[in-house]
Write a structure and sequence with these properties.
The chain is about 35% helix and about 15% strand. The strands form two sheets. The protein has a five-stranded parallel beta sheet with strand order 5-4-1-6-7, with helices on both faces. It has a two-stranded antiparallel ribbon with strand order 2-3. The protein is built from nine helices and seven strands, in the order ββααααβαβαβααββα. It is of the alpha/beta class. The N and C termini lie close together (about 10 Å). The longest helix has 13 residues.
């Protein structure tokens, strides 16, 4: 078993997943007045949750804001309002309403094995951290699920001014657990964003960001396969 003393977990697609209520899209129409069909809604979800890359054509200030989206709440809001506007949501009030739904931490669904894995890691004597590229506070999602007390440190990009794959955020997160990077396992769904942790010596375990109902034990499998208790 690897000699890890702490585990950092990504949030989106790892511990929780955003699974929109179909009611969010009721009445939405494109610039031609046509309702957004199922395919358009699924594409919109992808664009609003993709961890890396640029989901719609951008340049100039829009592109700069996108690349800084997880460094402040204002950039996050403006970047995703732009994505919504260029994804067929024609009405400004509807874009703001929909952004509010997407950015509400209480709208996220927890994976079936999240609580058990966090508890097992803590009971084995390891530290637990949550490290997320995000533009708003996700702690309420953990509080509602009754697992906030299982997390030793939340390291959120908009609070610390760095975002994955910048290795500085992994240094910050490891230090928040009181550990050296080589003592930490990073668990996440993006080889590019989360896997960048290996550059400073962290271990890395990847999970697939499948729908919650389709991934009953993916987190526990990934953590165990990396040699950490789960």
């Amino acid at each position: 078993m690897a000699d890890y003393r702490g585990v950092l977990f990504d949030f989106s697609g790892t511990l929780f997943r955003l699974e929109p209520d179909p009611a969010w899209f009721a009445g939405l129409v494109d610039a031609d007045g046509r309702p957004l069909d199922d395919a358009a809604q699924q594409e919109l979800l992808y664009r609003m949750t993709v961890p890396v890359g640029v989901p719609v054509p951008m340049d100039g200030q829009a592109l700069r804001t996108w690349h800084a989206r997880d460094l402040s709440s204002a950039h996050h809001r403006d970047a995703y309002l732009y994505v919504l506007e260029h994804s067929g949501v024609a009405d400004d009030a509807e874009r703001r309403r929909l952004y509010g739904e997407f950015s509400d931490p209480l709208n996220w669904s927890i994976y079936p094995d999240t609580a058990a894995v966090l508890r097992s890691v803590r009971e084995a004597g390891l530290k637990v951290g949550v490290l997320s590229n995000i533009g708003y506070d996700i702690r309420p999602a953990f509080e509602r699920a009754g697992i906030a007390d299982l997390v030793d440190a939340f390291v959120l990009s908009f609070e610390v001014g760095h975002m994955k794959p910048d290795v500085e955020i992994f240094r910050i997160a490891s230090a928040a657990l009181g550990l050296a990077p080589e003592q930490v396992l990073m668990v996440g769904d993006s080889a590019e964003a989360d896997g960048a942790s290996t550059a400073i010596g962290c271990g890395f375990a990847q999970v697939e960001p499948l729908p919650v109902a389709q991934r009953p034990d993916g987190l526990v499998t990934a953590v165990r396969s990396a040699g950490a208790p789960a």
